[in-house]
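Retro notes
What went well: the complex prediction finally ran end to end.
Inputs used:
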Amino acid sequence: MIETPVIMLNVKAYSESMGAKGLELARACERVAESTGVSIALCPQQTELALVAKEVSIPVLAQHAEAFAPGAHTGYVVLEAVKAAGATGTLVNHSEHRMKLADIEALVARAKELGLCTVVCTNNITTSRACAVFEPDFIAVEPPELIGTGIPVSKAEPEVVEKSVKAVKELSPSTKVLCGAGIGTAEDVRAALELGADGVLLASGVVKAANQEEVLLSLARGAL
Amino acid sequence: MIETPVIMLNVKAYSESMGAKGLELARACERVAESTGVSIALCPQQTELALVAKEVSIPVLAQHAEAFAPGAHTGYVVLEAVKAAGATGTLVNHSEHRMKLADIEALVARAKELGLCTVVCTNNITTSRACAVFEPDFIAVEPPELIGTGIPVSKAEPEVVEKSVKAVKELSPSTKVLCGAGIGTAEDVRAALELGADGVLLASGVVKAANQEEVLLSLARGAL
Amino acid sequence: MIETPVIMLNVKAYSESMGAKGLELARACERVAESTGVSIALCPQQTELALVAKEVSIPVLAQHAEAFAPGAHTGYVVLEAVKAAGATGTLVNHSEHRMKLADIEALVARAKELGLCTVVCTNNITTSRACAVFEPDFIAVEPPELIGTGIPVSKAEPEVVEKSVKAVKELSPSTKVLCGAGIGTAEDVRAALELGADGVLLASGVVKAANQEEVLLSLARGAL
Amino acid sequence: MIETPVIMLNVKAYSESMGAKGLELARACERVAESTGVSIALCPQQTELALVAKEVSIPVLAQHAEAFAPGAHTGYVVLEAVKAAGATGTLVNHSEHRMKLADIEALVARAKELGLCTVVCTNNITTSRACAVFEPDFIAVEPPELIGTGIPVSKAEPEVVEKSVKAVKELSPSTKVLCGAGIGTAEDVRAALELGADGVLLASGVVKAANQEEVLLSLARGAL
């Protein structure tokens, strides 16, 4: 559903990506995707998922969803709501929103039934292997010590990327691997793809940039 | 910000209140509020908050929000995002999403700074008193054993409503009290208001109804 | 460290296994282990771990431990405290105390460094495979729907046991597999061992029994 | 049950307070209490609660307990287990183990039924007031920004202590107030008592000291 190589942007709960700014950022992603032909996917604020999915044509994902079925779960986002919002899928187990093992398994299985895409975040090679057992669409490897640092994993620990790709494909050949944590430049994107990754997952590098669209454009060129 | 007496509808994560159905339910709330002149407030799916707030003119609230500031909090809803979505406020500490005491205090204080309305849910007279210390806009008393039963607290335990109203007003005269759990008919609404409540908080009684708008209309008439 | 086949008894937070009763149950386990020669391991109340480990000679395990290092963590049990208490290891990710994936991985790795035994609980074949990636000492498969029912997984879903054993050994040949949920009789133990399990993990079947020692003795005979 | 003024020592999950060291620290507390006549209460490692309670004659408290009744709650400590361990009560809602509002209320009520003492930790004047509604035996005010700093709240924010004492007594005259966060010297203890506190709650100031008993002795003299 999401073409690769992909640049996946998680806007987190940053103030620079809310309301009018959030919608403008979504449109910037759409423009860059259209002008470069590079696949860009966006994880907007949870509260803006339905609105953003309606406003832009690029794939939109939730930042998090629960493993349980629709029902009396005040304040929680279930997969059916993600789908009803017009989104393509969801991030799962982000380092800022870790999930229980049994819930990750159930969530990935349920998403498959609903035709939703899952991007499971992991923190090292071993947890990447464990999640490969669930055969999600994507695994995004993000060493937690590098998140938000501007030091890309592809540079700091290139072997983590290479070994993760290998480990994941061994247990789940169809799962694609994203390189997360510290991605900020076209060079970082290129390095990630050369190490075997199918794309990157990033956040502050774009959201906190003075000129978000310019950075996005530069990153997209790194994926060409 | 929210006029009382109010009928507050929490659509939870029910499948009957998502996507097109969610939007239609929001419009039904708006129509009934307009035709009867009764104050109706709506808590849509978290993922539809910005969209629904944009589409209808009645007050819209989040079902839950976190106590922390905007930042790197993937998958969480902060108050600034609630405000950016065009919402009026948020439910706090719903029985299906209980919060830590320190977080309730911080969240209510922060909401006041942002000009957002808080509706703190409590489970008995003692916790209602404790939350009155925080001086939120609303306290919604919902004995957990009655939630979803169709047995209104105003009938099953009328003294809980009366004593809660008294206990809350004693510590925070400006806080309004909603009667939750088991509300389903015009008579339940009327009984709640007669016991001193400033409105009702309900969910399944409307969301699960065969004709949602008809039930809303009937409930609104109970508040006239 | 723990000989197999093993009967592992988790006393949970049951009132029948606290204080004087808890100590008496521990001594009953010790007597049965000595008289039958069958390996019995015990998970006492968390608050009684050091006391029970001091009083009996059979292996004693914590019911739960956290993944983090010793420090300012009021009210939490770290692995170093488990070791200092004289215990042999810990249950991990019990169905009543599920853990985050990243924490299970970190906890199992840390336990190996400390020479502590880990018994990771899982709910189905897929999560058993995922946990096998961490190469713990034991994996205890407990379909949640059978816990506390008295219906043994070895009877209700024998293929879950067989396939779990196979799936686990494939990824981690050294990991032993326990059969949990619903075990109550010598026959259940025998069936589990015949399906390839290295022992059983049980709780209410013994703790709630009128004569705990008699049931233990019967179970032990099933392992001969 | 616990005489005041009291010096309450929470050993947290520090490595300096486990196993043989934990027992030696407990005995040091007992010796200082006996030699000075000052009331000293101890919160040992959760795993050592029953053992320490058996070995020393001073009041011993759990660091944390859950609000629910005994039952199938693997790895959790219930109040009945605290009592069965021979402990006098429990810390509640420590800043490193915050609890949900509804659980604090239920836990304090349950502890009263069981004759157990509760020490509810709070982070500011407002949450202290809210917890006073539950009428626990003690409220320990610990501004989180001072915990572990060695800067006592009695010095950094004396008005927090004075106002907390006043606010608590207003809603619950029988509740005693402890001064937490940053206590390390006899002078800090004296200042806390002069500000109206009934004792102090401390941790690292003793546990991390080169000579734990000497520091305890000095603190006790501050309470004379």
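What we learned: The two ends of chain B are 19 Å apart (CA to CA).
What to try next: split runs per interface for comparison.
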